[in-house]
Amino acid sequence: MSKALDRGILGRLFLFLAIGMAVGVGLFLMSATQAKAIDENKCLTCHGNPDFSKTNGQGQKISLYVNEKAMSFSAHRFIDCTTCHTNDPHKVPTPLTKLSLAERCGSCHQYQYKLHLDSIHGRELVKGNPDVATCVDCHSNDRNPHTVIRVLEYNAPAYKKNIADTCATCHGNEELMANYGIVEKVYESYMRSFHGKAMQLGTYEITQLDKATCTNCHGTHDIRSVDDTRSPVAGLDNLTKTCEQCHPGAGANFAAGFLGHKEASPQNIPVAHYTEILFRILLTSVIAVGAVVVIAAIVKFSTKGWRKE
Ligand code: HEC
Ligand code: HEC
Ligand code: HEC
Ligand code: HEC
Ligand code: HEC
Ligand code: HEC
Ligand code: HEC
Predict the structure, then answer these.
(1) pLDDT in tens, 8-21
(2) Which atom number of ligand 1 is nearest to the Cα of residue 55?
(3) Which partner from 84, 111, 204, 229 sits 20 to 30 angstroms from 265, CA to CA?
């Protein structure tokens, strides 16, 4: 009787063990097929090595390493290597420039690519200028084609709250900007403005981000020179329309009062300049008078103590 019971328990134990193992193997196989989905041709046996690189025609070292872990967080994590690297990637070596990169992104994202090519950044890119922004500068945190992340991820360089910082990686670089005759300190002046302050105060919630950032005034893939008549900030008509997207019925006077990125000076917007100076004098004198009163009180205390006369 007890032997039969024992055998029953043992039998059930084996059954559980067998089921457990089957589930384990199943899970292992599933995870294995998932990892294969982005590397169906085992490209990573070579390109998964962090030290893998080649030397290009100009003698520069170019890394050929693709970080699988970083790639598994990218917007393209379900796309196989060969979907982007069509034909045999080794038969037609490209020069691997910023332009060839944009072209490859553009093979799928044609709409953004077309706009980009006609933008101030894209037009320079076509001329072979590597200083300007292209796809990965705004979509990858390490400017790598394999770590492009979705626009709505909080840490995406293109997430609305992060855009100003993304533009500032170049537009905050005074030396670089001076080469192009761009003298306004656009990042600092934006951060000082109502819009910049409101954006900094808002949380990362998308509902808090109805404020204006760089791209609301300048465009995104179609950013143009501010002298180009098609720029949304060129001329009072365009600028008024741009403000009115968020300030309905604002009108030309509202837009005309906008300082842009310019700092007020005696030559440039003197009224604002002198008002600023007046307020600075007022503020300093109020603080100075306050300080004198406090110091006088301290001196009085240290010589006489708090006695009533
Ligand atoms: C046996 C190792 C090996 C494997 C596997 C391999 N590659 Fe490569 N790959 C190389 C080497 C070596 C280079 C550098 C070639 C050169 O000097 O131009 C390279 C270069 C590249 C380049 C840059 C091409 C260029 O213009 O210089 C790309 C893109 C690339 N491989 C993609 C792939 C893809 C996609 C796969 C899978 C289908 C793959 N590789 C599999 C060794 C490998
Ligand atoms: C979403 C598209 C996409 C996928 C998926 C993709 N790549 Fe790339 N890869 C690119 C682009 C774009 C470039 C820049 C190419 C250029 O300049 O012509 C690039 C460049 C490369 C280079 C050259 C070195 C470099 O970083 O510029 C190698 C090597 C490479 N890829 C290998 C791979 C391997 C291996 C996989 C799969 C694990 C893969 N790629 C998946 C888009 C992709
Ligand atoms: C100057 C920065 C910048 C550059 C350069 C740039 N993007 Fe974007 N991109 C953005 C921002 C910001 C958004 C967020 C949505 C918006 O404001 O339109 C975005 C959105 C996108 C989207 C989501 C769909 C959409 O249009 O909203 C795709 C796809 C995209 N970009 C692809 C590209 C490709 C491909 C390139 C290169 C040809 C590129 N981007 C170049 C900043 C940039
Ligand atoms: C083989 C076609 C292909 C290529 C090449 C390609 N993409 Fe994509 N991309 C896609 C697809 C498909 C999606 C949507 C993925 C999803 O929704 O899961 C996507 C998504 C994106 C997104 C996210 C859009 C959003 O709504 O947030 C961005 C940004 C983006 N790609 C930029 C790029 C950049 C930059 C490159 C070049 C480095 C590139 N793509 C190359 C096919 C491609
Ligand atoms: C509320 C609208 C608005 C916002 C937000 C804004 N700009 Fe501007 N931007 C303008 C206007 C108007 C001009 C032209 C007048 C001027 O130069 O001040 C301009 C000019 C520029 C110029 C050319 C300056 C020069 O010296 O020629 C650059 C570059 C620029 N902006 C980049 C940016 C960047 C980067 C951001 C975000 C950090 C930004 N802008 C935010 C409206 C805006
Ligand atoms: C990788 C560097 C880089 C990034 C990132 C970048 N830019 Fe630029 N941008 C440049 C350079 C360089 C120029 C000068 C091109 C020229 O004048 O030929 C330029 C030109 C401009 C101009 C035209 C200025 C003028 O003279 O009228 C505007 C506007 C502008 N960028 C806005 C932006 C905005 C907005 C962002 C962020 C969404 C951004 N840029 C991101 C490098 C960058
Ligand atoms: C993308 C939307 C958007 C655009 C475009 C925009 N603004 Fe604003 N602006 C706002 C929001 C939202 C606030 C309120 C900020 C806060 O206090 O939270 C604001 C506040 C202001 C303020 C502060 C006083 C007030 O009315 O609250 C001024 C001044 C202003 N904007 C001027 C402009 C001018 C001039 C333009 C065009 C060059 C412009 N804005 C374009 C969204 C925008």
Answers:
(1) 666 677 677 777 67
(2) 17
(3) 229
